[in-house]
Design goal:
It contains 4 helices and 2 strands. By secondary structure, it is mainly alpha-helical. It has a two-stranded antiparallel sheet.
Length: 120
């Protein structure tokens, strides 16, 4: 038996670096996309908000959902009513989130301020 040569041995570091570069770029795009919320204002113009922390992102999302509910839009996701949506969201926060009490209290406070009924 002779020696078997691997044709790709010389290319391995190059392929590995390309893979790592691609993964880094994909991660940066993901982080950039997750730190913004784009909405449409009353004049039909796009508005993009950038967030410094998870709390900023969370509060802006809650306020955006409350505005959508007040304007009569359908709730996001599979829920058919806003009541179902908020029950699902609060349940998710309670089971998966850091600081669940703070987040649930924020939702309840903002809904009360907007004149919407309490959830659960």
């Amino acid at each position: 038996m002779g020696i078997i040569e691997c044709k790709f041995r010389d290319k391995t570091p190059e392929i590995y670096m390309k893979f790592l570069t691609l993964m880094l770029l994909a991660s940066l795009v993901y982080v950039a996309a997750c730190s913004t919320i784009t909405s449409i204002d009353e004049r039909g113009r796009r508005q993009t908000k950038y967030f410094q922390s998870e709390w900023d992102w969370f509060t802006a999302g809650v306020e955006q959902d409350i505005q959508a509910e007040l304007s009569g839009k359908q709730p996001p996701g599979r829920e058919r009513t806003w009541q179902q949506y908020w029950e699902w969201r609060i349940g998710s926060i309670e089971s998966l989130s850091k600081e669940p009490e703070k987040k649930v209290n924020f939702i309840r406070q903002k809904r009360t301020e907007a004149g919407l009924p309490d959830v659960r």
